[in-house]
Design goal:
mainly alpha, single chain, 2 strands
């Protein structure tokens, strides 16, 4: 169902009837022609439709967190919103996730998890700059978390991961280089929040430790974090778009396809390491 809905919405978005929210290339882009940035809308539609008719349960507070983020991100895809407004919504969405956790945490952990959660949302947005990259990280990341959850008897968590993987594979079909559509803010921020939600709930339910998502998503957060620190130390406007991420510099040097293959190899290694840590009981 998730694949069917995502595919149907994707066809509509790629038709001449829905030529809007185009990502016009500039000096920081890796593409050379305008591309619609509404692929995330199809991905989210597939997930929402499948969840609505499935027996998988999503807490109301978690649903509100995602709905708030989707609403603001959709507006940002259509017209640029202020960073302050987007940041406030990111803070609110992650706060709702933390309040929805099944148990109470030590007071000092909430600010750390809040900052970390907001960073994950934004780093997913920062790293969505090369054809096939963010979609591939999503498939590898959630497939690994889902596999470990299923193996350890957490079927509901594994089912949600599976829906994310299926919907993203449909998107990847049209995002593979040369991409016909991009994730946009709806796709990148929602996938970032999904990574936060699955990581937190999987951790608190006992499916895995936080080390597992840290390892499997390392190809994203290491590049984004190190690049951010480098820009901050250099006194640059770190929140602005740029082409200083390792994957961007690699793509400019050897081309998008070759850079993507390098990243895929790194993702395979990260997933294999995460599965090994889960197998020996460390993560």
């Amino acid at each position: 169902m998730a694949a069917s809905i995502s595919l149907g919405v994707m066809w509509l978005l790629l038709s001449n009837l829905f030529e809007f929210a185009l990502d016009v290339p500039n000096h920081r882009s890796l593409h050379s022609a305008p591309v619609p940035r509404t692929g995330g809308w199809a991905l989210v539609a597939g997930m929402a439709g499948a969840l609505a008719i499935s027996p998988l349960a999503v807490q109301p507070m978690v649903s509100v967190a995602f709905l708030l983020l989707i609403a603001v991100s959709a507006l940002d895809d259509l017209r640029d919103l202020s960073a302050r407004l987007r940041f406030a919504v990111h803070m609110g969405s992650v706060s709702l996730l933390l309040l929805a956790l099944p148990d109470t945490l030590p007071w000092w952990s909430y600010p750390i998890l809040l900052i970390g959660g907001v960073w994950v949302i934004n780093l997913y947005n920062f790293m969505d700059g090369m054809d096939g990259f963010a979609g591939s990280m999503t498939v590898f990341g959630f497939a690994t978390l889902g596999l470990v959850s299923f193996w350890r008897g957490y079927g509901e968590l594994a089912g949600i991961c599976g829906l994310l993987v299926v919907s993203t594979l449909v998107f990847l079909r049209y995002n593979w280089p040369p991409a016909r559509i991009f994730l946009g803010d709806v796709g990148s921020t929602v996938l970032g929040l999904a990574a936060v939600a699955i990581s937190l709930f999987g951790w608190r339910q006992g499916a895995f430790s936080l080390l597992l998502p840290l390892v499997v998503f390392a190809p994203f957060w290491l590049d984004a974090t190190l690049t951010l620190m480098k820009r901050m130390l250099a006194g640059k406007r770190w929140w602005e778009a740029h082409r200083e991420h390792w994957y961007q510099r690699r793509a400019l040097l050897v081309g998008v396809r070759c850079a993507l293959l390098t990243e895929l190899a790194i993702m395979v290694l990260a997933s294999a390491m995460a599965l090994l840590l889960a197998l020996i009981g460390v993560a």
